[in-house]
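Submission checklist for the structure archive. All mandatory fields must be present; incomplete records are returned to the submitter.

[x] Identifier: thiopurine S-methyltransferase
[x] Organism: Seriola lalandi dorsalis
[x] Residue count: 233
[x] Sequence attached
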Amino acid sequence: MLAPQADRVMALGEWEERWQEERTGFHQPHVHKMLENNIDKVLAGRTGVRFFFPLCGKAVDMKWLADMGHSVVGVEISEKAIKQFFEENNLTYSEEPVPAIPGAKVYKSSEKNISLYQCDLYNFSSSIEGQFGAIWDRGSLVAINPRDREKYTALIISLMAEDCRYLLDTLLYNPELYKGPPFFVPDEQMHSLFGNSCDIELVHSVDALTDRQRGWGLDYLTENVHLITLKSS
């Protein structure tokens, strides 16, 4: 089932173009239901949790969490997406270079504990911002090039603090019918990627087929949400 998409590649410039041309049907103007529905599982009674958002776009989920007293670090290639996030949420921000990542910039909210790094995700590491107590991955693992999944998994695991609770949103559909992105990530592959280091719990599974995906030619679409935690060593 992985074969149809195995060689699909989206260059970073293509994602930047999508933001420039506002071809961002993946952006949601409201807090994602799967995050809302599972926030208690992610927080597990903790306050002031540090959240990581890989490929964050301008997700309103980031402000929602910051308003609740958590801190947010995101990574995004599109400068336009980052600036729109601050402007659309009426947040003032500063902009500064990141010495450890040539060419990167970090945008920091003045009022809220939100820092968004404009750089290639794979140039980011725990040496920049340490490790995180939570990760919300919606539209990230399903957006990266399928051939990069091992590299991506290694990065994510390296960013997980011991008590990290990683909420991962994946999509199941027939990859013969649609080339992606978002890409098809079967449960078996997710378990092979994360299973050695992590415990994986399916917390939600819903039929997510809408007219938008029917327009892609799909006949079914299942959205699965997993809670991933490091195995206690």
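[x] Structure attached
Curator remark: Strands lie at 50-53, 71-76, 93-97, 105-109, 114-118, 132-137, 160-172, 198-207, 222-230. Residues 12-230 form a domain with the Rossmann fold fold (CATH 3.40.50.150).
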